[in-house]
Structures are given as C-alpha cells and as structure tokens.
Amino acid sequence: MILIILHNLFVGILLSGDVHEKPSLLSVNPGLIIWTIVVFVLFLLLLKKFAWKPIIGALNNREKTIQEALENAVKQNKESAETFEKNKKIIAEAHAQSSKILSDAKELAVKLKDEIVSKANEESNKNIERAKEQIESMKSTAIEQMRGDITDIALQAAEKILSKNLNRDSQIEIIDDFMKKIPKN
Fold it and tell me: Which of 33, 51, 107, 137 has its CA 20 to 30 A from that of 179?
C-alpha cells in the first residue's frame, strides 16, 4: 500500500512539469522510465524485506500441513485396510466355528435320537416278551384250572350216572346239563 502511494507520488511529480502536453501512449519519457524502475526496485526490496519471508513461510507451512494430512490419510487408509483384513479373518473363523458347532450339534442330535430309538425298541421288545410270558403263564394257569374243573365235572357226571342207572337219553340229558354249567371262558 505504501509502495503504491510512493509510486503514484513519483509519477505525479514527473508528470507535473508537462501539464499542458498530453502524452501519447507510444511516446517514450526517459524520466518516467527511470522513476518507474526505481519505484519497482524499491517495491521489490520492501517486498523482500517484509513480505517475502512470511509468504514463503506460510506457503511452506501450508505445504507441510498438506503433506502431513496426506501421510495421515495414507496411514489411516493402511490401518483401515489391515483392520478390514483382520475383521474378515475373524468373521471367517467365526463362520467356521459356527459351522463346526452346528455339525457337532447335528451329530449329537442324531446320536441321541438313535440312542432313544434303540432304548425304546429294547424297552418295547422287553415289554412284548413280558406280555408273552404273562399270556403264556395265564394260559397255562387257565388250562390247569380248566383241567381241574373238567375233571371235577366229569367225576360228578360219572357219579350221577353211576348212582342212577339211566337209559341213554337220560345220560345225554345229564351230560348236556353239566356242559351248560361249564364256564365258557
């Protein structure tokens, strides 16, 4: 800003001598050229002394900040890729473990089912055998009881027949009567 004011001041001083003449655009004024060069050199010196270092420093700081941000982004990208791979491995392991657990559970279920069916079959066969034995025992008992009853009835019938000397029709009638008294079980 100061340089612009100085430049305008010098240009004004140089031009103040020829107030009545209008300069053309293509005319060469050696005094103006010299003063323009002097002001430009002063402007460059002032820029170098006061503004150049802070501008370069700000640019370097900005470059350093951008470089650090890029390095951090690359580092975070690498870390996230590593984390992603670790997570994929963990998920794959968990999937394998869950598959193994499921297959083990299915095997155990099949074994338990087979055991239960086997035990039920054994128990059923035992019950059938016991029922057959009971039936056979009851049958034997019933046959023995029937033999005793038939023997008693036959003896009673023979006793009555002997006690009564009856004719054939009477004997058949007495036998039919005893047969009706026999239980039908």
Answer: 137
- Would you list the DSSP string of the chain? -HHHHHHHHHHHHHHHTTSSSPPPTT---HHHHHHHHHHHHHHHHHIIIIIIHHHHHHHHHHHHHHHHHHHHHHHHHHHHHHHHHHHHHHHHHHHHHHHHHHHHHHHHHHHHHHHHHHHHHHHHHHHHHHHHHHHHHHHHHHHHHHHHHHHHHHHHHHHHHHHS---HHHHHHHHHHHHHHS---
User: What's this model's pTM, rounded to 2 decimal places?
Assistant: 0.39
C-alpha span between 112 and 99 (Å, rounded):
20
Q: What is the pLDDT of residues 155-175, one digit of tens each?
A: 777 777 666 665 667 777 777
Crossing angle of helices 53-163/168-181, nearest 10°? 150
